[in-house]
Amino acid sequence: MNSEQRLKTGWLVCQAQVLSSLNIADTRATRRRGLVGQTEVTTPLLIDSCRWIHTFGVKCELDVAFLDEQLQVIKTLRMKPSRIGLPVPKAAHVLEAEAGTFDNWGLVVGHKLEARLT
């Protein structure tokens, strides 16, 4: 697998607290692949340069957060498999996690996130 196809890894931080390890899709190939084929999401995925997602090929329900340029949460929703989401015009990034994760974290609109590369 070449570097274009590998996910970067890091930590997802909110309010000075580490929420989770993190995979980061920041290339065309990794953004396109996303979570396709996943039956569960053990590590959340941050997709750079993204305003909308679909869940075709994803086999589990997802929590989805749309983030602005500063990684502030501007919208959250839950998506079932085989759905197409509407674009969120002010979004610059999308965070995907297994359904229920955002409730466990207490993640809401207005929270500012940080992705720390490992």
Structure at a glance:
By secondary structure, the chain is mostly beta strands. Helix content is 9%, strand content 37%.
Question: How would you portray this structure in words?
Answer:
There is one protein chain. This protein has helices spanning 28-33, 101-105, and strands spanning 8-14, 17-25, 45-48, 62-67, 73-79, 93-98, 113-117. The protein is mainly beta. The protein is 9% helix and 37% strand. The protein starts with 7 loop residues before the first strand and ends with a strand. It is built from 2 helices and 7 strands; from the N terminus they run ββαββββαβ. The mean pLDDT is 94. It has a single domain, classed as Jelly Rolls, CATH 2.60.120.1140. A 7-stranded mixed β-sheet has the order 5-4-6-3-2-1-7. Strand 1 and strand 2 (17-25) form a beta hairpin.
Looking at CATH, the homologous superfamily is Protein of unknown function DUF192
Summarize the biggest pleated sheet.
7 strands, mixed
Order of helices and strands: EEHEEEEHE
Kindly estimate the percentage of residues that lie in beta strands according to DSSP.
35-45%
Termini gap: 19 Å
Highest-level CATH class = Mainly Beta
Number of helices: 2
Spatial ordering of strands, largest sheet: 5-4-6-3-2-1-7
What Rg is obtained from the alpha carbons, in whole angstroms?
13 Å
Shape: globular
Q: In the CATH scheme, what's the topology name?
A: Jelly Rolls
Structural class: mainly beta
Number of strands: 7
Integer average pLDDT = 94
Unreliable parts: none
Domains (count): 1
- Shape-level CATH architecture: Sandwich
- Helical fraction equals under 10%
